[in-house]
Amino acid sequence: xxxxLEDLDALAWTISVKHYSDDDSTTRPLLLVTAAVDKIVLKxxxxxxxDLKMVGSVIWVGRSSIEIQLDVIQSPKEESDVSHSxxxxxxxxxxxxxxxTGKAAAxxxxxxxxEREKFLFEEAEARSKLRKKKRVDxxxxxxxxxxxxxxx
Length: 152
Known about the structure:
Blueprint: H1 2-20, E1 30-42, E2 53-61, E3 65-73, E4 86-98, H2 115-142
Antiparallel strand pairs: 1-4, 2-3, 3-4
Organism: Gossypium tomentosum
GO molecular function: fatty acyl-CoA hydrolase activity
Region (Disordered): 131-152
């Protein structure tokens, strides 16, 4: 399973690079960092003696972050319906950093077109907002800004 996660991270990174890349040779290169694995869902047991196919795509882009959705497909030869052969699904979050300053770098926007793309984008947007809210709440707790109930 560890090797599979490593391969998923590498695929997600490759997809991120393709999305971030432009053909402008004057653009400063970006550093791409895995910020989080937002979720991993094991949908069925993965057999070590049957080939795996990994597919993925960009489903959401923020100012300097990107979410990649990956599916690991494993289906016996007699099974032709790919939707039933997804063994694992995962979402990886990458952030872009300027290679010289190390600060957040803006990334190419994403324009979802199909209904499915729009649905996935909206779901990922909601997860991003939740992550941001949790970070703010955690900072408040760390700084002692906890709301206290007044005692009568």
